[in-house]
């Protein structure tokens, strides 16, 4: 895995659904986009378990975008599950915000943490990476608060909770927890 390639891939692929949702205000198109990607990712997961050599082949022929040791499901599959559920169940401004936080906060914290991380909270997680994710997502929250006329405080709750979940060594993939739990909290405060 090459970190910058993986995070660029995540921003490009993960940013499609929230940008389409932001532009259309209609959940149908972004939900279909997520369903399309989720179908292919689940097919890949099935193939990975059915034919273990498939994963080795995919890693060898991918441009460094997949982790070499995924969990039960790859982070990409968990990411797309969280994206799909966010679009289906969260109000429009919360869903878009949550997906943008998930996409850009994850990339920022990984890139900044890998380059500048000196004070480690947990293995692979640093204070500097966490702060990088918070700063990027706070800037996004400021823009979205103005665009959606949603309280910045509600969005900031999502930013902080997502950042905390990102660094905790939970047994559940952080793409799933960071992609769903902040959205639930923002929805509760939004409604």
Automatic annotation (TrEMBL):
Keyword Isomerase found: no
Membrane spanning stretches: 20-43, 89-113, 134-165
Biological source species: candidate division TA06 bacterium ADurb.Bin131
Keywords associated with the record: Membrane, Nucleotidyltransferase, Transferase, Transmembrane, Transmembrane helix
GO terms of molecular function: ATP-dependent diacylglycerol kinase activity; nucleotidyltransferase activity
Name by which UniProt lists this protein: Cytidylyltransferase family protein
InterPro entries, alphabetized: Dgk1-like (IPR037997)
